[in-house]
């Protein structure tokens, strides 16, 4: 298969999605580490140097832009991958196997991951509640 897009095109695509949806993207060099923060509309993702890292970045964007994000961790994972695949410029076998591997991992670890997902969501809702009841911020210089 001849790829229609270069890695540079794919990296630009992720950057443009971040700009379009006002999502701040933190890039780093740790391959196994990626997360989305719905509270602050940010993601952490590896630098896009391969189809695999493109898939990971698209998946993290999917956690902010996809469906099923408030229905438990397996739904959130599925929704984020569906968004990634539907919005990616291209979808290679390598990207599909990253998706399959991640979903199997989540299924195998569903108990601990669901507990973590719930704790994150509760912290998010508490922060929202605190924000709603907090007095207006006073800015001093
Ligand atoms: Zn995920």
What does this structure look like?
The chain is mainly α. The chain has a single domain, classed as Zincin-like. It contains five helices and three strands; from the N terminus they run H-E-E-E-H-H-H-H. The chain has a three-stranded mixed beta sheet with strand order 1-3-2, covered by helices on one side. Helix 1 runs parallel beside helix 2, helix 2 packs across helix 3 and helix 2 packs across helix 4. The termini are far apart. The structure holds zinc ion. Zinc ion binds next to helix 2 and helix 3.
SSE pattern: HEEEHHHH
**What is the name of the CATH architecture?**
2-Layer Sandwich
Q: Report how far apart the termini are.
A: 59 Å
Helix content: 55-70%
Q: How large, in whole angstroms, is the Cα Rg?
A: 17 Å
Structural class label = mainly alpha
Largest beta sheet: what is the strand line-up?
Answer: 1-3-2
What name is given to the CATH topology?
Zincin-like
Which segments are poorly predicted (pLDDT under 50) over 5 or more consecutive residues?
none
What small molecules are bound in this structure?
Answer: zinc ion
